[in-house]
Structure formats: C-alpha cells, structure tokens
UniProtKB/TrEMBL annotation:
It comes from Thermus brockianus. InterPro entries: Agmatinase-rel (IPR005925), Ureohydrolase (IPR006035), Ureohydrolase_dom_sf (IPR023696). NCBIfam families: agmatinase (TIGR01230). This is N(1)-aminopropylagmatine ureohydrolase. Coiled coil: none annotated. Gene3D superfamilies: Ureohydrolase domain (3.40.800.10). Mn(2+) binds at H105, D128, H130, D132, D210, D212.
C-alpha cells in the first residue's frame, strides 16, 4: 500500500506540494535506521489534526501528494545521489514545491543541486546539531557529515543554526567562506537572533532541517543525538520568521531514525506539516481563519 501524508492525498496533477520519501541512509556514521524515517513520518502524519490551530489553516487543503520513495543503489553513493537528483528535478520541473524526507543528510547535496538546476540561485538555511562541513568522513566525501562542505565549495551561501558539534577545521572553513554561524549555545543564552539570521539569508532560501537539531529529550530518534538542542517552539519560531520574510524554494527534513519512541515521529510529522502550512500561507494558497491564527 502506498503511504500518503496525512489523511488526504491529493492526486499528483492537482497537488501543489510533493512530499518525496528519500530512504537513503548508507552514509550514516553512527546509529542506523534513517532509511525508515520517511515511512515513520508518513505513518505518524495520519494521526495529525488536519486543521492547524496556530496557523488557522489546514495545510492539506493546499494539495499534498506523497510521491513514490526514491530507490538507491547499494554499492554506489554516486548512483544513489543521481537518482535523488533526477527524481527531485522531475517534480520541480512539474511545478511542485518539494518537501524531501530523509534518509541521511547526504541526500541534501543532490536535492539542492536539483533545485538550483530547476529554480536558479538561492541561499541555504541549515538547521542541525552538526555543521556537516567535513571534506569527507569515514573515507567518503558522500558522508552525511559532508554535504555542506561540498555545497559551500560549490558556491551556495550558507547560514547554519543550532550547531553544537563541529571540528576546528570546519570552523576555520566556515569563517574563511563567510558562513553565518548561529550555534546552539548562543540561541540558549540570547534567544533566537531572528533579525540577524534573516539578514544573513538571501531573498530565496532552501531549508535543510536535520532532526537532531532538536533536543534529544524531544527528538531521541536520530542517529547522532547531542544535548543542548532546540526546543520545538524555537524550531517553529525560526521557520515562521523565515517563511514570513523569504521565498522558501524547497526543503528537506532528514536523519529521523525511528526507535520506537512515537512522540519523536509525531514531532517530526508535525514540524513537516507546520512548515508546509507556512509555505501555503506565504504563497497565498490558503488564508487563515478566525482569531486563533
Ligand atoms: N550526524 C553527523 N553529522 N555526524 C557527524 C559525525 C562526525 C564526527 N564527529 C564525531 C567524532 C568522533 N570522534
Ligand atoms: Mn546533519
Ligand atoms: Mn546532525
């Protein structure tokens, strides 16, 4: 049975939003399981309330279609990434707003390249516990610890929020390349520097959300959990500010590794659904209702 997002799957032609399952997880460095992340999010999404009280809309009414999962090639990261890029490009060329569900963070590289090929230039908002700026990790440049090294060297402006793990060389590279870095400890001490984050981003933004950006108390189902993460409220407030002021051209949510803690899967699904609602409001696909919004 094909899994869908939420209760109402919109036929492809009528859908504005395509949720793209990308269960590739061969680039993980520690705990396994991210390949089951997309399915877990889709299953949990069925339990969400379609109407979002905070936004005053039901994002599903914008038309959400869950695409077939992107296959992978077990012995080849390059081939797997080519399949991801081709699948994403096809949906983008069909005019869809793409929400990719990982899978490990290495998938962001082919996804971003597909978005640039289809939509032109934009900056990256990377929300994560990890900077993922290693040139390679465990012998591979296709590691989930490396996507933003490659994207940075390929010319994408980068803003990183929630980081609480990076090595000295990555910090040096970030400074040399003008990465706008907003580490987690600063967010906790000073609050979300929303104006600074927005000022660091361009008009058009691709958002890559690694679920381990959230605190493990809230999101224990990730491959490399670290303490001192973002609260759900901080994540939502950040996304709301970005969607309100920027054109979000696409997004991915990665690194959920289901481990039986269903509250984590519900958290993941709710955040994805909320982000889709923010896109629907900004794009004018839906209008809020009542004073609750
Ligand atoms: N989720 C990630 N992006 N993880 C990246 C891990 C990179 C190595 N840090 C730990 C070094 C251990 N000695
Ligand atoms: Mn990551
Ligand atoms: Mn991470």
């Amino acid at each position: 049975m094909r899994l869908v997002f939420g209760e109402q799957d919109t036929p492809y032609e009528a859908a504005r939003v395509v949720v793209l399952p990308v269960p590739y997880d061969l680039s993980l460095s520690f705990l396994p399981g991210a390949r089951r992340g997309p399915e877990a999010i889709l299953l949990a999404s069925r339990e969400l309330e379609p109407f979002l009280l905070e936004l005053g809309i039901a994002p599903e009414e914008a038309g959400i279609h869950a695409a077939e999962p992107v296959p992978w090639v077990a012995g080849s990261a390059e081939e797997s990434h080519r399949l991801i890029r081709e699948a994403a490009l096809a949906h983008l060329q069909a005019g869809k707003f793409l929400v990719a569900l990982g899978g490990d963070h290495s998938i962001t590289h082919p996804l971003v390249l597909a978005h640039r090929e289809a939509l032109g230039e934009f900056s990256l908002l990377h929300i994560d516990a990890h900077a993922d700026l290693y040139p390679e990790w465990q012998g591979s440049p296709y590691s989930h610890a490396s996507p933003f090294h490659r994207l940075l060297l390929e010319g994408f402006p980068l803003v990183q929020v929630g980081i609480r793990a990076m090595d000295r060389d990555s910090l040096r590279l970030a400074r040399e390349r003008g990465v706008a870095l907003f580490p987690a400890h600063r967010l906790h001490r000073e609050g979300l520097p929303l104006k600074e984050i927005l000022a660091a981003l361009g008009k058009r933004v691709y958002i890559s959300f690694d679920f381990d950006a959230l605190d493990p108390s809230l999101m224990p189902s990730v491959g490399t959990p670290l303490p001192g993460g973002l609260s759900y409220r901080q994540a939502v407030d950040l996304l709301e500010a970005v969607f309100a002021e920027k054109e979000v051209v696409g997004m991915d949510f990665v690194e959920l590794s289901p481990n039986g803690q269903f509250h984590a899967e519900m958290t993941a699904a709710q955040l994805v659904y909320h982000a889709i609602g923010l896109k629907a409001l900004k794009a004018g696909w839906l209008a809020p209702e009542g004073e609750h919004s």
